[in-house]
Amino acid sequence: MTIRTVALIHWHALHLWRKGATFHSLQHEHPARIDFYRARVVDGLGQIIHERLFAIEIAAEGEPRLREPGLIGDFAPADRPAELPAVAAQPEPTAAAHAPMRKKPVIEIR
Question: Contact, 58 vs 66, CB < 8 A?
Fold first, then answer.
């Protein structure tokens, strides 16, 4: 593969990811958005010593909630609606995204 081909594939993947995906959920009565984040702990040499994937559910009403990333397995893919619900355009929940990193560390170094 040439560099140009790799760049084209990367651009196309980013374009698709920015659109998001639509799913049906039997657990939700109202539309919600789920943002996925990856957190890393890196040592002084730049090596990853811990990495975690987590999800934050944003509903039209209420506070953002931390969820397990595996919850997407409970959803069924759906066609994109003609008009997206208002929750799709809400700002990113910055404070909620930093909450998992505020927990007590798994290993304490003394």
Answer: no
